[in-house]
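Lab notebook: predicted structure, single chain.

Context: the supervisor wants predicted structures on file for every construct in the current expression panel, including those that have not yet been purified. This is the next one on the list. No modifications to the sequence; it matches the entry in the shared construct table.
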Amino acid sequence: MTEDHSHAGQGPVLLDIGGDIGALILTMPAALIGAEVEARPIAGAAFDGYHPGSHLPHVAVLARPGSPVRHTAVFAELQGGEYELYLRPDQPVRLTAVVRGGEVSTATWPES
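Prediction complete. Output recorded below exactly as produced.
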């Protein structure tokens, strides 16, 4: 049996924030739908627990329904700190963002 997951993750997002955990919503160009954005900690509590070579959080760029459709990458839970953001697997850093515990941070991906 084949299951169709083509619409998975394209609706509302449950954010799991509080304490030292925040969320980050990136507004993305439509051309990047399907690309994956990775977040590498560079300062703060998130960096203190980071070890090179360890797993880094990453999310896909999706078209979110609405009027108008919004293209976003949503990190539903990130440890508070400053992050470098880039396209996986190894594109250059395009943006830095600060995530604060208990808050939703937003940023806009730069056009190329």
